[in-house]
Amino acid sequence: MDRFFHCWRDLLSRGSLKFNVLISFLYFTITLLKTSVLMRIFTLLVIFIFTQFSFAQDGQFDASFGSNGVVELEISNEQEEVYDFAISPAGTIYVLGKVGQNSDNPLNYITAIRDDGSVETDFSTDGLYTSASTNYRRIYVQETNRILLYESDGTMVSWNIDGSLDTSFGNQGTLTIVPTDEGLSDIQLLDDDSFYVFTIKDIQGQITVMQRKYSANGDLDTTFGNDGVKLFELDEAENFVFLRQIVLDNDRLITLHTNGDYENRERTITRFLSDGGLDSSFGNDGKVNIEDGPYNFCRLSVFYDGSILAGCNFYSNEDLTTIRTTRKYSPSGAFMDNFGDDGIVSNSAGALIQENQRFIGNSSYSDFEGGFVLGYQRFLPDGMVDDTFSFDPFYEELGTARLKLDRQGRMLFAVSTIWYNGTERALLLRYNNDPLSVPENEREQFKVFPNPSSGLYNIQRIPDTSNYSLFNLLGKKVKEGLFRQSEDILDISDLPQGIYVLRLGATAQRLLKF
């Protein structure tokens, strides 16, 4: 409790007058609370109140992380690369990569960084694992805090949170998830810690996506598909080049792949039904080609209404930089020319959609030697710039950057510096960002009361019938259904205490359950 009070005093010493009044009120209220039940409720109220205010502009460095938003991993004195990173439910960041790639003894590494930027010394050996015999390429953290690692030979390895082998997973901690005649495309974790593995295979001249489902402990779910496997025929093998991405949209599967010969390559979005058949209601018999550019990289995201965002880029030899664009397709696959400027957002490739349906776009400037200056923008769902977001670029040119939103919605980058500025170094950068804020005019379109509540909420809205979805602060859907009257009741008594986001169509509102 003393640490809690010291925290308030520190905020008082740095805040504005208006902020200090709020903090003072909260401080003295806490001193009056005696029971653990009241303290628990009040703590949730404090969190709820603070999520309604922003004390730092979105897009600026998060000064509470490391040194003003920057953490140098300092793995070694040699070249440091970042392959992947994952964030645990507690906020610990696990960074995976390689050091000394060009040396005689390259090492695979995993390091653990706490939410404040300090090293998590309880992991492995003082927070760092290194090995010359492994080639881990991807990392995931389950809700139970177990760490899953994918190795280049097609195996999955499970670790406990301290870095020790989890022998309850698979066969004494390891599991082969990619057969030798298939290639890995993606791994996606589900809310209950089960996971999908997507691979591709040439089956009699047809490139086919194979989807398998595994339990949290690595057992193949034979009730899924046909003995645990679903098949999706993607393209003819002679026409296929590369499968870029797989996105799940409820029961539908959306893929993005490159096809065609070297001179006439196309980027094709394909939407499948859950049974593996093409969704004929989308595009031309389930397919849409991304037009107007020799794009060598595209990324997709799906809005709540089923429309698709495509952020693409290519390197221009004429301009000596990377050209980035974003476009949007309707749920039926039609190009939306009322998005951005005549259907295009220029100079930014967006593919990360937030819970409030605004999206983040990559606007980094690249040079001809492979380096770039980090730059990002945030946009409204219609492609207009969100001027409440102002990105603070990192002071140094980078060679690689991987972005994820952490569990509070902050922008977290795992980056490495560029070779021509000296030995490459691996860093973490964290920026303020609120993925849940909703415009006032949207909040007023339906009312919720009481809020906070212990589980029952009265909902008033127009129209009478509305589909709803409820999300937790991790962005995971925890409940959905249909309101059938203009005044209805939402019951979330079965959910744990916390803050949730209720979404009806394009509108949203936060709920506090105590």
UniProtKB/TrEMBL annotation:
Matches recorded under InterPro entries: Secre_tail
A UniProt-annotated Pfam family: Por_Secre_tail
The UniProt record lists the keyword Transmembrane: yes
Residue intervals passing through the bilayer: 21-50
Keyword Membrane: yes
Alphabetically ordered keywords of this record: Membrane, Signal, Transmembrane, Transmembrane helix
Domain (Secretion system C-terminal sorting): residue spans on this chain: 448-509
NCBIfam families: Por_Secre_tail (TIGR04183)
Name of this protein: T9SS C-terminal target domain-containing protein
Source organism of this protein record: Dokdonia sinensis
Lineage: Bacteria, Pseudomonadati, Bacteroidota, Flavobacteriia, Flavobacteriales
